[in-house]
Amino acid sequence: MSKRRTWSAASDLICVAAALLLSALTADAQEAQWSPLWDALTKRSDAKVVDGVNDKGKATRRIDLSSGVSFFLERDGDRIMSTGFDNSGRGAVQCSWEIYVGVRAYTEACQPGEDQAFEADLDDAIARMNEFIVENSIVPVTRSELQDAIRQRKQHVGDVVRGQSDDDRRKLCEANPIRPMSIALRSASHDLRISTLNTLLSVKRPPVKNPCL
């Protein structure tokens, strides 16, 4: 009986010590500055912040914005790893931007001039998303930086097929992983593409990549 009491008391002390340690770690996580960027975001009136410590003992922070976008942070020494999720139901803008840029680069390299109306829709959609990203990104980005990224993507895809024989070019284009998405977007009606884009950009919020296809 005495041994049972001793072990029970020891177990209780361990639990109390663990709870105190977790509380101290959580308090440290709350007090620690993450970075000027993330600290500024937490001060927004529409931000809800939850600090904690994960099972590896690393400080974590979740920032939920009223727009439906959440950021998950984890501190590893001096490094801060972040992941953004769009739970608004309207779609992740950065994901859509990357898809549209990939499809535009593909059409320019593999189907130039085949469907000019589709190409115009892609250009218009990318331009609108560029404006949205510049206006709403928590990390400052310029239109010229986005345009440079688009040019680099087009050049990369174009370089793959440039100088190839017609047969090899066709095979390379058919093997391009963006091809199914290009087919899907092209098969959608103009009105559906515009409606989907309008929904995507209907609410101001940080452009993030997740969830993505």
Outline the structure in words.
The chain has 8 helices and 4 strands. The protein is of the alpha+beta class. The chain has 2 domains: 85 residues, no CATH class; 108 residues, no CATH class. The chain has a 4-stranded antiparallel sheet with strand order 1-2-3-4, covered by helices on one side. It is elongated.
Concise account of the structure shown:
By secondary structure, this protein is α+β, with helices and mostly antiparallel strands.
What global shape is seen?
Answer: elongated
Characterize the biggest β-sheet: 4 strands, antiparallel
Output the structural class. alpha+beta
Helix fraction, binned, reads 55-70%
Q: What's the number of extended β-strand segments?
A: 4
Order of helices and strands: HHEEEEHHHHHH
Distance between the termini: 60 Å
Strand percent estimate: 5-15%
The number of domains is 2
| Mean pLDDT over the residues | 88
Low-confidence stretches: 1-31
Rg (C-alpha, Å): 24 Å
List the helices and strands and how they pair.
Blueprint: H1 2-31, H2 36-42, E1 47-53, E2 59-65, E3 69-76, E4 79-86, H3 93-110, H4 116-136, H5 143-161, H6 166-175, H7 179-187, H8 190-200
Antiparallel strand pairs: 1-2, 2-3, 3-4
Helix pairs in contact: 3-4, 3-5
List keywords for this structure.
14% strand, 8 helices, 59% helix, four-stranded antiparallel beta sheet, 213 residues, alpha+beta, elongated, disordered N terminus
